[in-house]
Structures are given as C-alpha cells and as structure tokens.
Amino acid sequence: MRFPLILLALTLARCLSLPPPDELLMDGVALFSRGDWSGARDRLWEALRSLREVRGARLRCGEDCGPRGSHLEELVLERADCLLSCEKLQLGQPSLYRLTKETEKIFQRGSPYNYLQLAHYKLKELDEAAAAAFTFYMRNPYHEQIQDDVQRYQRMKGVQKQSLRDLEEPSYKALFSQAIALLSESKLASAVWKLEESMSACLSAVQACRTLCEGTREKENQTHQEISEVIADYYTQVLQCKQRCILDLTLEPGRKRPKQDSIVSHLKLLQDTYAQLGEWESAAEISRSLLLFHPRNESIIKKLQSYEYKLGGKSGGKPRESIASYVRRTLAEKKLLYYAMENLDIPFQDQDLWTPEDIIPESLRDRVRAARAAAEDAGGELPYEEVSVTLSPRQMNGTVRVTLDGVLSKDECESLLHLVQEAEASGDGFKGRRSSHTPREKIQGLNVLRALQMAKAGAVDTTRAHLFYYAGERGRVLAESYFETKTLHFSYTQLVCRTAIEGEQEGRKDVSHPVHADNCILDTEEKACWKEPPAYIHRDYSGMLYLNDDFKGGDLFFTELDGTTVTAEVRPQCGRLVMYGSGGDNAHGVRAVTRGRRCAIALWFTESEEHAEQERHEAKILVKGVSSHKEQKEEESSTGRETTRSRISSNEDESEKPSGRQQRRRTTRKIRDEL
Ligand SMILES: *[C@@H]1O[C@H](CO)[C@@H](O)[C@H](O)[C@H]1NC(C)=O
Ligand SMILES: *[C@@H]1O[C@H](CO)[C@@H](O)[C@H](O)[C@H]1NC(C)=O
Ligand SMILES: *[C@@H]1O[C@H](CO)[C@@H](O)[C@H](O)[C@H]1NC(C)=O
User: N or C terminus of the chain with fewer C-beta within 10 Å?
Assistant: First the structure.
C-alpha cells in the first residue's frame, strides 16, 4: 500500500505547482488587457493545463474510489472518505480547485483560446495563433470576428495548413476521421482497426465523462428537505448528467442534434466494413450489438441473417460485451429517471433516439412522444440567449419557415425607428414615395451602406447606423444557425417603412405587397414558381425583422402556390424575425397597412459567395475599418450578445474579464444602454 502512495505523492508535487485554473485565467486576462502578451500567453496556457490536471486528478480518484460496501451508508460514506483523501493527496486543498458554473462555461466555450490567439499573434507566433483561433472557432462557429480571423489565418503566409486544427479535439474524433479517410481510400483492413480504436476511445471518453458527473454541486438555497429527498434530488441530477454524456460527446458545438450518437455510428460502419472484409463472425457480432439499440430494425435483422447464413446457419452468437453492458447500464438508469419523473415529478429530458417505448411508464408516453416530436421539429441551436422560437416550422405550417422573438430589444427598435426619422429629416434619399403596389400607401427604403454614409456625413447618428448593420448580422447568424446552412452572405438588406395615407383607407381590398416568392417568378395559374431572371435566383433565405406594431393591418401571410390559400399569418412586433426559404414554398404577401407606419428590416441571403453583395462589404469597411477607438468599443458591444461576449479587445475594457455572473450581466446591460 505504501508504494502507490509515494507514487501518488510524487505526481502530486507536479500538480500542486500549478495554481487553480480560474486564478490563472483571471491573471492571464488581466495581463492581456495590460498588453503583456507573453505574460498573458504563458498564464492562459497554464490555466488550460491546470484545468486538465485537476480533471485528471478527479478522474483518477473517481475511478480508484469505486463502489465499496453493500449498504447505502457504506457506499456513500466510504466513497466520500476515499474521494476526499484522494483529492487531498492529489490537489492539496481540493476546495481551491472547484470552479463555479460560470467559470466552467468560460472554459467550455473555449474563451481562453480567443485571448491566446491574439497574444500569439502579437508575439508573431503565427502557427500557435492559428491553432488557438481555430480551436475557439470550433466552439463558436457563429462568432463573426473569429470567422474572419480564421479566414485570415488561412490566407496568411507563414501559417502552415496543419496549424489550423482543434487543440481540444477528443482523441476519438481524430481517430474516427482517420478511419473515414481510410475507408474512402478503400483501405478496409486498416480502417477497421482505426474504427475499433476510435470506438474504444469513445467508450473511454463516455466513462470519463460519467465519472466527472459525480463532481461537486454548488450549494443552493438551504431549504428543509427530507434526507431521502436530498439524496434523490442529487442522485437524479448525476444520472441525468451521465445520460447526456454520449450526446455531448457526439455533438458538434452549435450544430443540430445528430440523428444518431457516436456509438451507433461506429457500429454501423464496423458492421459494413467487417462484412466487406468477409469477416462474418465479427460482422454478426456487431449486428447483434446494433440490435440492442434498434431491436426491430429490418435492415439490421436482414444483414444479420445474411452473415449467419455465410457462417453456415450458425446462430446464438452474442453481442459484444462492452456494448451490451453499456446498453444495460443506460437502460437501467433511464428506468430510474422515468420512475423519478413519474413519481417524484423530477423532470427528465431523454435525448436518446433509441430509448425503447416499453421502459417509459405508460402515463408518461404521450408527454415523452410530444417532447421528442418537438425536438425533431426544432432547428439548430440559437446562439443568442435572448432569442427564442415563437412559431416552429410545424406551427408555421411549412418546413423552412420560423418565427423568432427577442432579436432586438425595445430600445434597439426605438433606435432604429429614430434612424428612420433622422434619415427622413435630413431630406436625403429617404423620401416617401407612393408604393408601386398600392396608391393608398407610401413606401420608404434605406439600405445599410446609405445609412452608414449618412452617418459619416453627420446626417444620422453613427451608433444607430451601426446598429442597423449589426441587426442584419444577427439575422444572418440566426438564419445560418437555425436552418443549419452553409455560410450565408448578404444579398440585400433594406429598412422598409410602409405608411398608410390619411383618409384614403375606406373599404380597401388591395394589399400592401401582393403575393410573390423571393427567388422565382410565381405562376399562380400553373401553381409553379419559375426560378429564372428577372427573379433574384441566387437568394436562398429571406428574413423580415420587425421594428414596431403600432399600426393597423400589415400582417405577413404565406400562401400555397395558388397565391390565395393562406397557410400562415404572422403579426409584426418589435424584435420579431420571420425567416424562410426564398423559394416558391414560401410565397408570401403583406396585408394592407390601413393606419400608421409599419417598419421592418428586410434581409436576403445567398449561399453563393460570388453573389454576395458588394455593398455589404463596403458597409463592413465603414463599420470596422476606419472607425475610431471609441467607436470600436461600441461595435464590440453591439456586434451582439452571447456570441461575442468574449471578443477580444485590446483596450482596457475590463468587461471582458471572465469573472462572476453578475459582472457579465451588468456588462450586457451597459452595452444595451449605449445603443
Ligand atoms: C432560491 O431562493 C430564491 C429567492 O428566495 C428563489 O427565487 C429561487 O427560486 C430559489 N432556488 C431554489 C433552487 O429553490
Ligand atoms: C435501420 O437501420 C438502417 C441502417 O442501419 C437505417 O438506415 C434505417 O433508417 C433504420 N430504420 C429504422 C426504422 O430505424
Ligand atoms: C397553421 O394552420 C393552422 C390550421 O389551419 C392554423 O390554425 C394556424 O393558425 C396556422 N399557423 C399560422 C402561424 O398561421
């Protein structure tokens, strides 16, 4: 016993040389904002290393202190004792190394890498800078600044191609990519080895994740609870965390929930590759393992039968034990969680797509089914905390169609409406003219570049013009993330106001904007939409971001190709964004505006880079290129919310300092006020 202890003590000495990760992170960021690039670089790398070592220590302890005893008291108390002494040995003072949820999030989001990339860049360490930038980008794919930065590193001379890699990529993902590459070269034998390697790495990663689920819990309100209530509460939390491990490991950050988890993906590939190699025994074993997830899948059953036929009709083989025990354990835990859901009213969101119905208590099945349908209907993850889905595609009676709220705050809507007034007052290019669609309305349009040019000339407020620019950017990010498209480029952006003409509204039967589609010519007689010029055939997605609701009429409506059968109708309001595919599936029009003024930002996007609007590029230069130091600060705030919270600023702006939740909240508010 003594020998391993000495060994532990030796590893401990190394471990203790590093202060806790959050302390290092704060130091690093402080040095960063003072412009001490090498100090910041060293401290931030140390923070990441410290985090890894703390996790490693926890993992070792968690595994060493496996279940002991057979009574609950022994199980819990002896394990607690073991964990405490183990962590003490490894970390000295374990409580020092516990991170708040907020700090955990900062690390999870990869924010230290954003600081690191700039520090390395300033130090002219371009390969390191590129790797750090790419690592941050992988965790924040919709962050506008990092998208630009990564593209810049890609083009930069002196940056090696392989430097653009994810430094935090789990080992099994790297192995899996190698296996896929081998498969594409038809190197089956090597591919199958890689797949096996990747599969066991994946199972180990799941195991490690599960162990860390038993970490600490922040003390919440000290209410009076039964001891068994407390235990049940905590225990179900841990179980839910464990159940999430496989999907957390499968998920690409910011991407939609995959159709299958990594283990199932591995098995499917292994099954087919073994079959191609003629290794029927192994292929059959994998098929049986797959059937544990999908017991009634015809295609797998047929495959298994064909493999067994090749083996001379021999049957009765078993699934692979590592998979069988994984499935057994998962199902046992799910049963407990459903029990808690049914009897203790503890919510449980089962994310797995393969959970068999019969383990779900009957009284819950409808609820669970509905929740699953909703999850499948949902689009990609939205990168802004304030934005939520108000009408899903299904509720909109379409497919590529959604209504989001909270895209602009009330103040932001006001600012943009002020921008309209200022532009109007300047008498410069924003005069209302009779609408070409109806003589009863006037229409005005202002595009982003024009607004920015007017701001430069002092005719309108600069912050408001910038907000116009960034409102479009938010729309772009939302379309990209919700519809999970390729990178979207602006095709055109315009702030449009429609104003009812006083006293001419009696008995109106016309509309404000007749039914049309955005990228094709709607032929309501043929019930078709012709994708040909003069339609803007390169537009792929459209968005309408509304600024107000103090007018009469003006609802947006969608129709079928006949132009008359209305399928959905949406009332505009401040901060509401309706997004839809630009084709004939989303023929739409605007009801007559019979009183007041209706303003909205119309956004059109294209997936085709070559059809990206040149004006947007010029606008970007006006916003970013030549702005003064002060303005730059404002932009950083206005770029938007969550995704850019950790955007780098080289000034003394302490707001980026990753610290407690409260400070972050305050920062967000301050940003809003500035606008
Ligand atoms: C803790 O207390 C606050 C205020 O008393 C309350 O708003 C919050 O919901 C409580 N949280 C829990 C988990 O009970
Ligand atoms: C059965 O499995 C195959 C591939 O293994 C998959 O393509 C198919 O969608 C599955 N069918 C069902 C009903 O799950
Ligand atoms: C979708 O269709 C249903 C049934 O026709 C209707 O009640 C609902 O209002 C429609 N959705 C929208 C957003 O208009």
Answer: N
What phi, psi does 525 have (nearest 5°)? -75, -45
Q: What is the pLDDT of residues 311-366, one digit of tens each?
A: 887 767 899 999 999 999 999 999 999 999 998 888 888 878 788 888 899 998 88
Atom of ligand 3 nearest to the CA of 391: 13
Instruction: Please tell me if the CB atom of residue 391 comes closer than 6 angstroms to any atom of ligand 3.
Output: yes
Question: HEC profile for 587-633?
Answer: EEEECCEEECEEEEEEEEEECCHHHCCHHHHHHHHHHHHCCCHHHHH
Cα(133)–Cα(115) distance, integer angstroms: 9
| Pairwise CA distance, residues 325 & 322, whole Å | 5
User: Which protein residue's CA is at the shortest distance from atom 4 of ligand 1?
Assistant: 221
Would you say how long the chain is, in residues? 675
- Whether ligand 3 lies within 6 angstroms of the CB of 569 is answered as yes
Helix axis angle for 111-122 and 101-108, nearest 10°, is: 50
Which ligand gives the minimal distance to the CA of 224?
1
300 lines ligand 2 (CB under 6 A): yes
389 within 8 A of 570, measured Cβ to Cβ: no
How much is the average pLDDT of 612-625?
85
Q: How far is the CA of 115 from the centre of ligand 3 (A)?
A: 48
Ligand 3: which of 395, 403, 544 to mutate, judged by most atoms within 8 Å of the beta carbon? 395
Three-class HEC string of 252-299? CCCCCCCCCCHHHHHHHHHHHHHHHCCCHHHHHHHHHHHHHHCCCCHH
Rounded Cα distance between 345 and 7, Å, is 47
Shortest-distance atom of ligand 2 to CA 298: 1
* pLDDT mean across residues, the chain: 83
Given a contact cutoff of 8 angstroms between Cβ atoms, the answer to whether 672 and 411 are in contact is yes
Return the percent helix, strand and coil in the chain, to nearest 5. 55, 10, 35
The closest-lying atom of ligand 3 relative to the alpha carbon of residue 557 is 14
Residue to mutate (ligand 3; options 390, 395, 397; most atoms within 8 A of CB): 397
**Among the bound ligands, the one closest to the CA of 287:** 2
- C-alpha to C-alpha distance for 79 and 57, rounded to whole angstroms: 16
Q: Where are the beta strands (DSSP E) in 451-538?
A: 489-500, 513-516, 521-523, 528-530
What residues are annotated to the active site?
598
Three-state SS for 95? helix
SS3 call for 361: coil
555 CA distance to ligand 3 middle (Å): 14
* Residue 605 structure tokens: 């996007």
Which atom of ligand 2 is nearest the CA belonging to 294?
A: 14
Q: How far is CA 236 from the centre of its chain?
A: 26
DSSP 490: E
The pLDDT of residue 656: 33
Hey, what are 216's tokens?
């600490």
Mean pLDDT of 385-408: 90
What span, in angstroms and rounded, lies between the C-alpha atoms of 358 and 462? 61
Please name the residue whose Cα sits nearest to atom 14 of ligand 3: 568
Query: pLDDT band at 497, cuts 50/70/90?
Result: very high
Q: How far is CA 5 from CA 8, 12, 88, in A?
A: 5, 10, 12
**Residue ID of nearest Cα to ligand 1 atom 5:** 221
Contact status, residue 476 vs residue 419, Cβ threshold 8 Å: no
